[in-house]
What we know:
By secondary structure, this protein is mostly helical. It is built from 10 helices and no strands.
Amino acid sequence: MTQSPPGGLRERKKAARREALVAAAHDLVHEHGLDAVTVEMICDQVGVSPRTFFNYFDSKIDSVLGIAPWEIDPEAAATFVAGGPTGNLLLDCAELATAQLADVPLDPERMSQTMQLVHREPQLLLRHMAWLEERCGLVEDLVARRNGAETVGPAEKNAAMIVTVMVRSALTHWEAAGRTDPPFTYVSVAVAELRALFATD
Length: 201
């Protein structure tokens, strides 16, 4: 049997099923609250088995958040590690933030709905913060490789936190602006704010 190419029918079906599971989780949590919703309820609404569900998500909470593999673009990561694309660490961190936001696994409307639920449900907020920490760790490793450091130290942690701040700031501006343009277009705003914050006379 010929395998479907990336972006082919098989991948489109997987993406559609994943979106259906996230949509069902959102609808059920909106209606019943997070504690009352079970994996079985989500599966029944989509018409799949729990076994299929766990092929996509590790938990009910992850399905509500739409958590999926979300790697940093390999080309952007390699350029960063090599000292680019500008040679200025702040601007190169901004490029990493842009790369992350350009490949978000949720569409903008779904992302907005997810963030609304995060604000309502403390368990979602805790998992969301843990997930951000996991992503921060990926960036720490990239900064260490760029610096030629064998282990992650304070400098690497600080740079990774700046990338996280840029991502969150861009999402905040995107939300405030009505979610019209792609989220990554607001990274430049985050950079300008950071520069203004640390500017000296």
